[in-house]
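When time allows, look over one protein, given below as sequence and tokens. The question is which stretches look regular and which look disordered:
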Amino acid sequence: MKKDVIQVDYENEMKTSYIDYAMSVIVQRAIPDVRDGLKPVHRRILYGMNELSNFPNKPHKKSARIVGDVLGKFHPHGDSSVYDAMVRLSQDFNMLMPLVDGHGNFGSIDGDSAAAMRYCVSGDTLIPTDRGLIEIRDIVKDSKLNSDNDIDIKVESIKSIKNKANKFFNSGIHKIKKIETKYGYEIKGSYNHPLLTLTNVEGKPVFLWKTIDSLRLGDYLVLNIGKNQIESNMNYVTEDEAKFLGTLNSNKEIPKEILMSSKKIQSIFLKYLFEGDGGVYSPQKKNNGAIFYSSSSIKLIKQLQVLLLQFGILSAIYKERDNFRLIISNRESVYNYSNDIGFVSKKKKDALSNIVNRKVNRKWATSGYNHPDFIAGFIRQNAVRNKTWVNRHSLSKIDSFILNNKIIKELLQDKDYEYIKDFYNGYMYLPIASITEEEPEIVYSIKVNSKCHSFVGNGFISHNTEARLTPISLEMLQDLDKDVVDFVPNFDNTIKEPVVLPAKFPNLLVNGATGIAVGMATNIPPHNLKETINACIRILDNPDIKTKELMKYIKGPDFPTGGIIANKDELLNIYETGNGKIRLRAKYDIEDISYGKKNIVIAEIPYTLSGNKTKLIEDLLKFMTEKKLEEVSDIRDESSKDGMRIIIEVKKGVNIERLMNKLYKISKLEDVFSVNLLAISNKLPKLLSLKEILCEYIEFLKEINIRRIGYDLNKYKERKEVLEGLIKAIDKIDLIIEIIKGSKNVIMVKKCLVEGNTKGIEFKTKRARNEASKLIFTERQANAILAIQLQRLVGLEQDILKKELSEVKKNIDYLNSLLNDKEKFKDMIKDDLNRIKKEYGQGRKTEIKCIEVPVIEEDEIIEEDVYALIDRFSYIKIINEQSYVSTNEETLSEYKKVIKVKNTDSLLVFDDDGYMYQIKIKDISLSKIKDKGIPIENLCDINKGKILSMVPLEKINKLMFATKKGYVKVVSAEEFSTNRRTIKSTKLKEDDKLIFVNIISETDKEVVLSTTDNRVLRFNIDEIPTQKRNAHGVIGINLNKDAFVNKANISTETDEKKKKRGSKGACV
């Protein structure tokens, strides 16, 4: 065994292994290649899609199929890494020239995540189709595991739109979760199955897709309840059979023949079903009555609940001992039941009629069926008149909006009414009541031919995604079969993959790149395709061109989100050095509205906010809440498919330019893009200048064109050889036919044609044998002669062969001229670049200007004393001295902290995690004593730490710190004088916490530390050394095992008292 052990130096081995690992991450994952501008994962996705013939003129393929293929053949690093990369390639707000055409939800500029690539529901999920309500597994019966199947059905999609579905997927066995909502509606699906939810975004209801794994208790799922739903165009039972099945009710589930029949048959079945085990609750004082059905079968009840949705009927499920009871109490649902289903017996008909015709008790109109409060909150917030009426009525109840529709329409502006009414139209929003993990089972999905790919299952709305290559991506994949790039074995040596793609345009600059590797990062901005190609052409003409002259062609980055580059004068240095910072600004317009007011309309945002637009709006609204934007009356998002439109309503008389400068200063409407032109060059990471990137790409472009020309030249030469042989063969056709007839096998014929070997061949004459012995054809010519069809040997075909030979010779001469004439070769490259520019080029999106950093002209502040009041809920408010003096002591005693401070000062907040947060007093508007105040966490981004102390900066000379593990130190005020909002106030040992921070005054003499094991230490404060902010401190007290300091304080004990005590310090 010892012979097998190799002794190595541990330190050297670790260094070598780390470097190998770092380089593998850099080259194989994180940093793009300068030649095609792609990281390996992106390259493999495009190549994999190319191998699947996933072309722009072919149908989209399911994302899971593409990802699975790339994973299995080229990139075994987890499906999420591949899918996320493919999603980015499709996003037009991230890519200037998207390389993947995504179909479905591939994310949005707002920040919505793309739908998961593979998501499926359990087999018993009921899908509304033109063949009725079908359990999804029965769409293709007995389908094989992990199979794709062609189908031709129509299904229900979002907004009750009917769309065609043409693929059915048995996705195999997966882990699943069951989501059950209030009232008992449920769905089971794979963890990454997306469902439509309703979410509150700063008081505005918004539809968002969420995966099952990301759902939480209380999230609202969207339930589709429109009456105009798809129905079967066939009947599988007669009306009499439907009556019989409803009356008999011996099944524990609804017969499939009923589910798959028309609504007329379903209605008859339901009428007789409810007649047996159903009935009517009479109206009472506190309700308007209800319809019910009871059964011991939960499956029957669940199916019944989904079936009733087809008639626009909401219901709720309740457990009653051994039975389950389904209740229909919603007013509109009762009407729908009465009109479309009804009862058989006169007694139950009369009872139902009594409910329907009863005068509505509006207070109990909905019997618990409520919409989320934030929908009604939107109406209250945006009501422009009669707010008293709005505040008195509960608009969360479903029927309230219907009953008061005219009034609500008058209360709101047209745009707000149009926005909110869709949320009341055909949907119900149910909070999630439980989420449970189920045993793994087979799950299924379908492909829907629509823009959103959505379908309804068990009443909930799901969807999926597909993809294919874009036209311009083919310009990166052409000629792969012509040996233009090298291929290497894939990870398991089963197939080969290209080292780089033969990109016909400089993709690294056009689409940019971002990536983080070990010890380095790249961040390359996108550039306009036309400008970049013009620069390439200029370098071809003048390789010695300077960067400054290149910038006549490439003006600067061109971001897909548009906006403005504000520091034009710094671009030259960035392009020459390969790094720097670009200041990006949002672009805005000013709209005049009524009564002299104006709106600022943000039409384009900085590229750094791509995928974070919602966060931008949330931050702006937060500034309003904190009264940092008192010039603004409202902020809302009116963006649509027609473009971005963020509205900032400005109060009358406000200086717009000054307000925009303020917004640029305090918000992400002006942001910084940090440029780092790092790419793989000659297999190593290298920081490149703009010219170096273009020059390396042009050299690569020359290389792939030379290789393509060489490949084509060889093919033409081979064809020339064949054509010359065929033409020669036609002249001696009789002899060749005689050779073929006289030969015993093909080998004998080929030897005669190539070598003149006539041995064993029977000839009619010696002359023929003599002529045959003089034949000299090449191997390739001989094979072509033997393969040619006899009809090709007629005279007319001979002319065609000669004409083709003439064309082939011309092509050979042309290709040779390209290789021999450098200018002609360059012109060929330029022609191809100009073709791409003409076919795909677009106008510039981003403006480039020289704009100074915004300076906010603040009103001169007259320095005065104010008081910061902090209550027990950590809300802070600032009152002036007059308000403080006039406030009685009892009111002030309700606040846990009252701090006198200058209005020009800052309040320093310290937490037990060792952070300091700075709050500028001038940022907090003066309040009245009765005002609620602002949460401290809204003024500074406090982490999870507990607030220990708040002190005014100007009052600090020195601060004393004490920690749980007994460390103490004194820090000078200068250490905390900073413009940063958050800094580390001290360095803590592992598992240590700050327990005390306070100002040291001139009268402070001693420190008192107490521990959890009832020990107390007193010592002179002068014994504590003054240290830097980032120091741990010194040990102030030695602790026993498992003990820690639980209290610290500063004492103002005099020297006289100390003498009486009789010792310098004491520990008890």
User: Anything to note?
Assistant: Residues 362-368, 1058-1068 have pLDDT under 50 and may be disordered. The chain is about 35% helix and 25% strand. Residues 690-731 form the longest helix (42 residues).
